[in-house]
Structure formats: C-alpha cells, structure tokens
Amino acid sequence: MDTDLYDEFGNYIGPELDSDEDDDELGRETKDLDEMDDDDDDDDVGDHDEDHPGMEVVLHEDKKYYPTAEEVYGPEVETIVQEEDTQPLTEPIIKPVKTKKFTLMEQTLPVTVYEMDFLADLMDNSELIRNVTLCGHLHHGKTCFVDCLIEQTHPEIRKRYDQDLCYTDILFTEQERGVGIKSTPVTVVLPDTKGKSYLFNIMDTPGHVNFSDEVTAGLRISDGVVLFIDAAEGVMLNTERLIKHAVQERLAVTVCINKIDRLILELKLPPTDAYYKLRHIVDEVNGLISMYSTDENLILSPLLGNVCFSSSQYSICFTLGSFAKIYADTFGDINYQEFAKRLWGDIYFNPKTRKFTKKAPTSSSQRSFVEFILEPLYKILAQVVGDVDTSLPRTLDELGIHLTKEELKLNIRPLLRLVCKKFFGEFTGFVDMCVQHIPSPKVGAKPKIEHTYTGGVDSDLGEAMSDCDPDGPLMCHTTKMYSTDDGVQFHAFGRVLSGTIHAGQPVKVLGENYTLEDEEDSQICTVGRLWISVARYHIEVNRVPAGNWVLIEGVDQPIVKTATITEPRGNEEAQIFRPLKFNTTSVIKIAVEPVNPSELPKMLDGLRKVNKSYPSLTTKVEESGEHVILGTGELYLDCVMHDLRKMYSEIDIKVADPVVTFCETVVETSSLKCFAETPNKKPVDMHQNRSSVINPPISFPVIRNVKFKILDAVVAQEPLHRGGGQIIPTARRVVYSAFLMATPRLMEPYYFVEVQAPADCVSAVYTVLARRRGHVTQDAPIPGSPLYTIKAFIPAIDSFGFETDLRTHTQGQAFSLSVFHHWQIVPGDPLDKSIVIRPLEPQPAPHLAREFMIKTRRRKGLSEDVSISKFFDDPMLLELAKQDVVLNYPM
Amino acid sequence: MESTFSSPAEAALQREAGAAGVLTPLADLDRVYELERVAGFVRDLECQRVALQFPDQLLGDAGPVAARLEETTGSKMFILGDTAYGSCCVDVLGAEQAGAQALVHFGPACLSPPARPLPVAFVLGQRSVQLELCAKAFEAQNPDPKTPVVLLSEPACAHALEALATLLRPRYLDLLVSSPALPLPLGSCSPEPEPLERFGRRFPLAPGRCLEEYGAFYVGGSEASTDLDLDPDLSRLLLGWAPGQPFFTCCPDTGQTQDEGVRAGRLRARRHYLVERARDARVVGLLAGTLGVARHREALSHLRNLAQAAGKRSYVLALGRPTPPKLANFPEMDVFVLLACPLGALAPQPSGGFFRPVLAPCELEAACNPAWPPSGLAPYLTHYADLLPGSPFHVPLPPPDSELWDTPDVSLITGELRPPPAWKPSNDPGCLALTLRPQLELAESSPAASFLSSRSWQGLQPRLGQTPATGAVSGRRGIAIAYEDEGGS
Questions:
Q1: How confident is the model at residue A307 (pLDDT cuts 50, 70, 90)?
Q2: Please, which residues bridge with residue A707 across strands?
Q3: How far apart are CA A561 and CA B417, in angstroms?
Q4: What is the ipTM of this complex?
Q5: How far apart, in whole angstroms, are the C-alpha atoms of residue A97 and residue A315?
Q6: Per-residue DSSP letters for A279-339?
Q7: Using the beta-carbon criterion (under 8 Å), do B228 and A863 form an inter-chain contact?
Q8: Yes or no, beta carbons of B416 and A512 under 8 Å apart
Q9: GO biological process: what's one of them (chain A) (predicted)?
Q10: What is the nearest CA distance from A725 to chain B, expressed in angstroms?
Q11: Beta bridge partners of A541
Q12: Which of A349, A481, B205, B295 maximizes the CB count within 10 A of its CB?
C-alpha cells in the first residue's frame, strides 16, 4: 500500500481513480460523490476489486432495488399504487381459515357394546328392526331417555357432572336454548328381557308445538310411536295433539310415563296416590285414543305391556314384565309373565293364602302395583336420598348391589342414578314394549304403504313394498333434509321401503309433483355415500336394504321437502309417496329483505336452504315483490332467521314486524242480484251466499266460507262473444261486486294457548290475556300438583311477545305454549270509511278490521281504500240507487 | 253483420277521440307548441307534405295548429290522429301512408329511434316551472354542496333545467344537467366528448365519472300523484337509477319534494316478482307493441330464441294496445311480454286488472338467460335494444352444454322445483341441412294443446263430416273497419 496516497487519517489524497467513467456525465453527481467518497474508500480498499462494474457508486435516489411494475407486468398493464390502507386495521392481512360449524359431531366412531358389523348384519333381517318415533310434550324427557340408551350402548359416552348429555341435540342452538329444534335419528342395537338383540331406529323429536312438523316427518318413516308423558304434569296440549296425529297416521301407539321420580321426590305423594295419578294418566290417554281412533281394540294398559314407566334422569325404566323379571331373578322359580299380569289394577296379594284376589283381604292391604312396585321404589329412593350412611349399605347389600367407597361418597343425584342403574339394569322393558307392540318394518309395511303411497298396492311393486323385499325394485321415501356441518350441502334422510340402495348407484328422484302423466318433476342423480345416522356420528355403509333408515348423499339438489327415490330404469310404474300432512298451519308471516340490495341472490339461496331444512316452512315472493316466510310460531321463525342469517347466507337481513295471514269472508247474503255486462253488452248475473275460493277483492289472498251462486248468465249465441276475453273480466267483476254487497268481513287466525301457572299467578294470566283480546275457556288445577292449567284463545296477531309478557307478569312462574286453532271473524267493517285510524294508538275492537285492511294495503303498496265503483257497471249503480240500497262505502 | 262483431262499424267511426274542442287559447298556441321553431324546421327541410302527430289528449288543438302551420309555411299538413300503439313513439308508418317527408311530434315522447329514417321535430311542451321554489327545495334536500346530483325533469319541464342549474351552480360544484335525447340535426357533428345516452336523456358526464355516482333531482309530476300507477317515464328512471343513490322528485308548481326511495324499492320488488312469474311460465305471449321503433324485429326474434332456449313455448300476438279483455282471450298464456318502446313496456300497471301479468323484455331476459347476472346485481334495462348483441349490456346465452342450464331451481312462488329446460338452444337455428335422426321418438305435445284438452269448453264444435261439402267461393275483401260488401250503410 502506497502511503503517499493517504493522509494521516487514512483518507485517499492521491490522483483521481479512473473507475467511474459515467459519473463525470453530470456535474452534480461528481460533487455528491466527493462527499461520499470518504466512507466508500475504506471498503473499496479492503475488497480490492475496484474495477468490478457492480461496485460503482450509485446515488441513493438512482438506486434500483426492485424492477418496476412495467418491467414485471409489461407495458400494457396499468399498475395502481395506493398510499392509504383500504383494508381496516381490524381485519387481519392473513385471515385464519374460517370453518363453519353448527353441529356437534364425534370425531371418530365411538366404542359401542356391540360390533358395528353386527349392527350392519341386523339391517338385513327386517323382522329384528323397529322404527320408532319418540314424541311427547315439551320437556317430558324424550332426549334424556335417548341419552340413557346411548349411555347403555356407548361405554365411553357419559354425561359430565350434573349436566344433561342431550346427545340428540346436535345443533349448537339446540344446546344453547335447551330445546330440541330438529328431529334426530339414532340407530342402536338393544337387547330385550330375554337378551335377544334388536336393531332400533329411534327418532327423537322436538316437543315444542312450533316444531310439530318435525314430528310429522319422523312419523312418516316410523311404524309406531312411544308417547312420553311427564308423570307429574300428565297429558298436556302437545300430548293430545300427538295422540291424534299418530292415530291419524295409523301408527301403533305406546306410552312411556316418564319422570316418575317427581311423584316421589318432588310432589311427595304417598304410594297409593301415586298409583291413582299414574292410572289417571293412562285413563286420560285411553279416553283421547277412543275419541280419535275408530279401532275399538286400541287400548293402552300396563297389563298389555304397552305402557312403561321410567325416570330417565335416574336411569329407571321398567314395564310390569321387566319388574316381575327382577323378582324372578332374585327369588327364582316364579313365572314372571304370569306374575306381571297381576301387578296392575284392583288386585291384592293375600300373604296368608299366597294368592291374588280381586278384593282387599284386609283394610290396610295395598294394591299389588303399590305393594310390589311402588313400595320398593319408594324404599330405594328414600334410603338413597335420606339415609346414605346408616341403612343404605345394608339395603344395597340385600339387593346385591355393590358400590365402592368412592361411589358411596358421590352426591345424591349421581348416587341415586348409579343405584337405580344397577338395580333396574338396562332398559329391557322399553325394548320389550316396542318389540311386542310396534310392528317390524316387514309387518308394518302394508298399512304404511296403504296410507302413504299414491299408487296401487296390488301391483308387483306394491307387493314388493308390502313384503319389505330387499331384492325388489328400489323404493325409498325421504322425508327430511339434514344440512352438513358447515351448512353447505344437504343429505336426504328416509326409509327404504323395498329393494336395496347402494352407494354410488344412479337413481331417479321423484318430486312431490310427479305423476305418471306428468313426469317432469323427476331427475336422475347419483347416490354418493350412504350412512346410518346415530345423532352425532354416522356409520358409513355401502348398501341399505328395505326396512331401514338411511342418510343419503348426493341427491339433495332436486329435493325440496320430501321425495321418492327409485331406480332410473325398469321401475316405470313407480309413483310417489304422499307429501307430508302436517297437524299445524303456518299462519305467522314475516317479510325479509337484505340490507344491501345487491346481496339478494345470497338471501334467495339462503331462503332455498331453510326451505329444505324446515319441513313445513313456506317461503315465497308475494305479488308486491316482498319475500315472505310463513312459519308456525315465533320460536320457529326465530330459528329460521338464525339459520338464514348465520348458517346459510351470512348477510345482514332486514325483517319486517311479524304479521299473520288474513282471509276474507262474508256474513250475509247479498241482498240483490249483482250483474255486469261484458264489453259487448251481454249480462252475467250472480247472487252470493256463504264455499269456494277465488282471488279476493279487498287485499288478502284467500276467501273462506263463501258460496257464489250463479243465478243467471245470458251467454251470447255467437261463439265470438263467448271468448275468455268477454267472460273472464266480466265474471270477475260480478263476483267482486256480489262479494262486496254481502257484508264482507276479515278473518284472522286464533291460537289455542295452554298456560301452566301456580295458583297465585292465575289472575295475572287473565290480565295479560285480556289485554291481548284473549279469553279463557278453562281454568283447572292439575291433580296432584300445585299448578293450574289455563286454556285460552288468543288472536295470533296479538300473540307476539305474549310469552315474554306473561313471564314478566308472573315473575317467570307461568309457562305457556300456543298453537294455531281456528279462524275467526275480525270485529268491525273493513270498508267503513267513517272510521279514522289514529297512528300509534291502540284501536277499539270495532276499528280493528279497518286497521288491518289499511295496514295490509299500505304494506302492499295499494291505495288505502277499495274503490268499489271499479267493479260496478253504470246500470248496476242505477239499480242500486233504484232499490235504495244504503251503502256507506265509498263509490 | 254488426251483431257478430264486438261493436258495429259505425260506432267506431262515430266515437269521439280525445277531448272535443280547442284546449289552448288561440293566442297561446305559438308559445305552447313552439310554432315558430316548428315552422323553421319545416321551411329548412323544404318539404311539401308534413305529418303532425298528436296524442289523444291534445287532439283538440290539432286543427288550429295545422291551420296556423299551413299558413306560415305553405306546406300541406296531415294530422295523424290514431296511433296503433303508444302515442309516445313516432308513427313512421302513418307518416309514410300520408306520403309526408317530415313529421312533427307533439306531447310526451319516448325519443326512441324510429325504424326508418325520417326527419322528426319534437315539441315536448312547455310547462311553467317555479324556479325559485325548486332551487330552494333542491338546497333543502342537498345540504352538502359537494354531493354529485343530476337534474332530471319530465319532458315538458326540460326547457327550465338549464335555468335552474344556473341558479344552483354558484353553490353546487358537481351538478349535472340532463337534456332530452332529441335527434341531432342532420349533418351536425356530435359534440366532444359524446354524452352518455340513457333513459331517453343525455348526460354530459365528465371523463372518468359514471352515472351510478350521482343522486337525482327530478322536476315534474304533481303533488296529488300518490297512487300506485306511476308515470312510465318516472318508473323507468326509478327502476334504472342506482339503488343506493337518493332520488327526489319536485313538483314544478309548488316546489314540494318527495323522497322516492321507498317507491323505487317497491317498484323493483314488483318487477322482481314478475321475473319469478316469467321463470314459472310455460307459455309466453310476446305482444308486438310497436312497429315503428328501430330493431323491433331483431328484438322479437331475440325474445323468441330466449323463450325457446329456456324451454318455454312462445307465441307472437299482434293486438294493438293491450287491454285486459283482449289479453283475457288467451288464457293459455302464463305471462305476456310487451315488446314496445321503454315507456310503452312499462305502461301496463298492476292495478290495470290484467288477468296475467304483462312484463317488459328485460324481465324475460332475466328469467330465461341463466348467464344474466342475478337480481340485485343486474342493471334494469328499460329499452329492449340494450338486450341485443352490440349493446354493452348484452349477455350472450351460455353454450348448450354449459352447467348453467342444469342447475335445479326452486320457484319462489309455488315453492316447487322448476325442471331444467327440456331442450337446449341449438347452435345454428338457421341450419336446414338434413341430419340423421338416430331414433324416432314420440312427438311432444305442445303445452297449448294440453291446455286445450284440459278446458271444459273447447271451442266451436267442428261437426266433422256433418257439414256438406261445397265449392270454394271468394270471401270478403277490404279492411276490417268497413269491408267492401258492407257498403256505405
């Protein structure tokens, strides 16, 4: 290194280096360069590669770190750089993958006490299958009962702490609300008292009356029902409706009186009173059945074995037979079936003669049911609840129940459950009841087909279905659609009635409008996978033979509500199964609209999906262009809106205030002959009376209870005068004018309300009802309980918020359920123009009809009043004047 | 013969059309009908025969106007009193029959281009506008001077818009004034940049701006118009205007303003319902509603193709102006589509008592073309020409093997599944070459035939074989209003 070239600080002072030729081009650059040289030189010296072309000094502003957008994308691409963030800070730049999940599902197949292969084998033997729907009033313990069955068959599924498992409430919303919304199928293998295994297809249905449509879908594919009745509450509103529905659907009816522990622990009834209470329930059910059924032999009795008793909370379930079996197992040498026949009714045991007699041997002797069943039950419950430390271990020892020290230290409820579980064992009594009284799919097929199939039963196909022939032509009836976890797709759920459905098979899906004459509503689809559904997990199978329930993938697209699935070829005579016939009517209406109009397609897609998901839901667009949803009640529509907003469309939706559907009727006969002339002067006369349906004049879509009588119609001789152009508008005018002359009235739907409340709240219930135009029809105490049942009617339009209102007024002690009951005329004249409707004020009763009419017409965007003159001709008006008809209507 | 037909021939001739007598004081004629301008137009063209077209309600003034014009120009004037379709369209055919070389159109006009070139002058009318009141109303509705607003008006008030804008300009920066899209004088070069033409109006948009950014302030209508039946011109503006933008109407007499957002929403919902009806329809009646507007033949064949592609039967009906009794003669139709100028297509109102709904062409396109953007995203087009190839809004039908045709669809009206179209659109409809048919299948019966067989009354009894055979004789001649053999009775 030449030291002369550097100063004492090591700075270069020698002659200029000739490496940077370019730099000389601009004077400004060289000047800058001098300033920077000091820093650069050290490096340059150290590196010894000054001549390298890449090392030339480039100014900061001239440096190019990245290629320009033009170089990257080419000259024809416009690139825009935005200085400001268009994405809000709250939104992550890399969003986590969002998985939509609305249901609780098992990750893997859980362990079961039976092999899955065994379950699959049983599917081939239709005599060993039972298709059962569990139904009953709200909170009468259906889901809890299924939990017990699940716990008995799935050793690893246990309820946590004191929480109910609710295995069949698979939706998050169901868990949160604590009420079933969808009916859920469960398939398990259960043994009867003799240890014989049966395949049970059980449908757990919602108990809330709003969701009766789910029950209907379940009933259609079942051969029998088990009706759950709360021992303390007895027969309630929905119990009665379900009995009627099951009888109408021609299903075998069995009863399970649930929550018998409540009689003992809560109501603290003496055993004899408990017996009376139970007998009262059985009698009540029999009374209802005889009212709705034409079959005289249809009687329910514990003696027949079609009534069982249970307490699903404490895992108790027995029939007379299974309880007798416990005696037989303990004491041996007893014919338990004969013994069971003597355990119900006015039969007493005489310990001296060791015989059963019809008369009480002593004044203190108890009926056999009390002595042999209730007394022991009371003893077990009482000792566990009251006497854990002293006498319980000895009693348990006597019963042959062995508990560990830890188990004895459990809380009362789990302990009671444990003891009962050990004492009563599995629910073999329930299985016995179903096996004996509910027909197998093979036996039940014939009545089922006769009731639901639109085609003839005598054909080859009808016979294959009646025989439940797995080798026959494929016929499968789907009644429900279950959406997948993420709510994107649907799986169809139904019952195979004949033939065998295979995975991957092409099938023909017949819709509800398919007939042999009009084959349009049918589509060929390919079946995807097939499953047996067990609430939170699905067992995939490759084929499902006749008699079973199946969950089908890949056929959802053409199905709206129900469908018939058959073979694509060779089964041309197949007809469809009837669409579901519901026992409720959808009278509540809400109009929906997306907040952002451009999201309408998303909302329509969502509407189509909720329409699939809810059996009785109706979604449609009205003539005014409003999208309306018709449902059975507030809770129902609330669930629909949840699904629409969260599950299926994820957009903001505006909802109009709920309204009800109205219809129009007349109360009198039109006093004069209404007539009109066709445009070329040919009169049509009509008179009107009180039943036909046409498009009504005032504003509502349906006319009820009206008869139109054609008194006279002079139809022109010449065919030219008789075209539709002459007749239709004229006839319409005549019908409207006749309608308007016969004192038109509105009709509104009425709800039947059942309220349960303690005695001190009854007056508050009356008050709340009266404020909403409701009236009480019955008010009676429930026998053996401190509660009252109040039955009332309330107009549906005034029922919005009734439940909340009622709870507020009774400090949450009253509970109500309401269901559509009938149509009733709205007081007041809808066309009386003298009525002035003041805004934001409750209207007196005679103004209501007018108010409803004006508000509906406003909502539809019609002018407020019906212009009547539009329907009357001049000659008709003259006639009116001649007859001096007093009309307070605007002309 | 009278009894056989709906009304005797004389009745039609004796019927009084429009209001009788002169409506406008003679002194006002010049101002109201802009006779000076019209006379200038006629003189410039130097034509000998000129047709004057009046709507029915202005016919009373036709005589004096014609007389006055003949006097000033010396050309022969013909009054076209009876237009076959809407009076808003230029009746080219009528003018041709009279051998006129030019036409003057009075009253509200749809300004759609006529099918044949003919010099036309439009007299839209001069309605007085209270400028001060309107300006005040405008300021009340638009407190922010930066809001982009377009001034619109009914045709008769168009003359006052510039004046209104001048009042507002100092304060409002982003103000656009629309003008009626009158035909440009022949030979005049179009201004640069060419203004956007929509809704029969011109919008002088600055480059880079679009109409969707603007709110609207419409001068026109009257305070009393609260009923459903909107003026078709206002309906098309409400339907076509961007849904998120405010739309105010202002009465030119009183300056009363009204927010039309609710009405527009209701109107859109109603049209949406009609699209659903069209989707459900099996048989579509295409009503010829114009013969004088450009490209109507093309549009008709386009609509027929559409209906066929979507698996619907279509029939073309020429009925003149649609009325409920006329349309009720065709009960086998599920919906009618009125192919007419933008105003004419929107004219049939829901309260008009039609037995089946009457749709605009755009709604049939939305119903039948699966590639059409879904409702809410699609523009509402009021003129059928926008649907045809060559327009920026044209959406071609997807190819027959496209998946779009197969998507199952649930009707929102009946809640039932709509089957996918039974037959696909063929690629070359005009191909006449013979093709080999692999297998003969049973011909599908037409929906009309199946409808007929379901009717209880199936028309005249044909009495096959019961009528004696006779030789053919020559029939009646002439036009329907008075056949030759009816004589002059």
A1: very high
A2: A689
A3: 10
A4: 0.70
A5: 43
A6: HHHHHHHHHHHHHH-S-TT----TTTT-EEEEEGGGTEEE-HHHHHHHHHHHH-S--HHHH
A7: yes
A8: yes
A9: mRNA splicing, via spliceosome
A10: 4
A11: A530
A12: A481
Which tens digits make up the pLDDT trace of B97-154? Answer: 888 888 888 888 877 778 778 888 888 877 788 888 888 888 888 888 888 888 888 8
Please state, in angstroms and rounded to a whole number, the distance separating the CA atoms of residues A778 and A225. Answer: 29
Domain borders along chain B are 28-123, 131-184+194-268, 281-419
Question: Which of B270, B324, B413 is opposite residue A624, by nearest beta carbon?
Answer: B270
Fold of B28-123: Rossmann fold (3.40.50)
* Strand residue runs (E) in A735-870: 744-758, 775-781, 787-795, 815-825
The answer for residues whose C-beta is within 8 angstroms of residue A418's C-beta and 6 or more apart is A403, A407, A410
Q: Which residues pair with B284 in a beta bridge?
A: B314, B335
The confidence score (pLDDT) of residue A106 equals: 83
CA A289 to CA A667: how far, in whole Å?
A: 36
CA distance B112 to B200: 7
Q: Which residues of B touch A611 (CB under 8 A)?
A: 410, 415
Share of residues in chain A with pLDDT > 70 (%): 88
Q: What's the rounded Cα separation, in Å, for the pair A241 and A231?
A: 18
Rg (CA), chain A: 38
Spatial separation of the C-alpha atoms in residues A242 and A245, rounded to whole Å: 5
Nearest-Cα distance to chain A for B192, in Å, is 25
- Determine what percent of chain A falls in helix, strand and coil, rounding each to the nearest 5: 35, 20, 40
Question: Are the beta carbons of B375 and A729 separated by less than 8 Å?
Answer: no
Residues A719 and B335: their CA atoms lie apart, in Å, by 25
Q: With contacts defined as CB-CB under 8 Å, which chain B residues touch A618? A: 415
Comparing CA positions, the residue from A308, A309, A312, A288 lying closest to residue A298 is A288
Cα dihedral: B196, B198, B202, B208 (round 10): -30
Is the pLDDT at A883 greater than 50, yes or no?
yes
Question: Using CA atoms, how far apart are residues A658 and A633, in angstroms rounded to an integer?
Answer: 10
CA distance A618 to A588: 10
- Using the 8-state DSSP alphabet, how is residue A112 labeled? -
CA distance A523 to chain B (A): 8
- State the pLDDT at residue A118: 93
> Which residue's structure tokens are 């119900």?
A344
Per the CB < 8 A criterion, the answer to whether A641 and A649 are in contact is no
* pLDDT tens, position by position, A485-513: 888 889 999 999 999 999 999 999 998 88
Task: Name the residue among A560, A597, A722 with its Cβ closest to that of B243.
Answer: A597
Do B28-123 and B281-419 share a fold? yes
What are the structural domains of chain A? Answer: 116-437 (3.40.50.300), 456-566 (2.40.30.10), 588-656 (3.30.70.870)
Whether the pLDDT of residue A774 is over 80: the answer is yes
pTM of the model: 0.79
The encoded tokens of residue A589 equal 């209406």
DSSP count for chain A of H helices, then E strands:
26, 33
Q: Which pair of structure tokens corresponds to residue A82?
A: 């935005």
| Residue whose structure tokens are 């027949």 | A304
Chain-chain contact of B270 with A601 (C-beta, under 8 angstroms) = no
In tens, the pLDDT along A615-638 reads 999 998 888 788 999 999 999 999
Of A560, A601, A723, the CB nearest to B416: A560
What number of other Cβ atoms are within 10 A of residue B464's Cβ?
Answer: 6
Which of the two residues, A865 and A659, has the higher pLDDT score?
A: A659
pLDDT of A508: 92
Nearest to A863 among B6, B227, B412 (CB): B227
Nearest to A861 among B266, B355, B375 (CB): B266
* Token pair for A67: 């290629």
650-669 in A: which are within 8 Å (CB) of B?
Answer: none
